[in-house]
From TrEMBL:
It holds the Pfam family SnoaL_2. This is SnoaL-like domain protein. It comes from Edaphosphingomonas haloaromaticamans. Residues 11-114 form the SnoaL-like domain. It comes from the Bacteria.
Amino acid sequence: MGVDANIAVMRRFFDAMNAGDVATIIDSYAEDGRCVTMGGTLISGAFDKGQIAMAAGRIYEAFPEGVRFVIHAITAQDDRVAIEAESFARHVSGKDYNNKYHFLTRLRDGRIVEFKEYCDTEHITDVICGGARP
């Protein structure tokens, strides 16, 4: 697939995340796809498609009003799409969650092979993990 098609795949993926469309989120990954959340938080690590499928819906349990991602910039080359984005949500704790991200994705045949998430891990620890550390 070309660069424009890969960008379109990632825009649809973020549309699905904004809509809470768990089935589309999971289907966006290749069978050997993985999600990598950088850092040393309780939710950091590398997750295969099966683990993504188990966790994807739980995100919306933590954020019952949903999570809205705003894409600020997209840069793409070959099989990679880099996305600068920001999230807006309210956690079940009542705390606002507003993080800033750089996502680096690799795609193959219209599916995500790797989705790397770089963001403010201290904000994750404070809001999502309630201050708990590994």
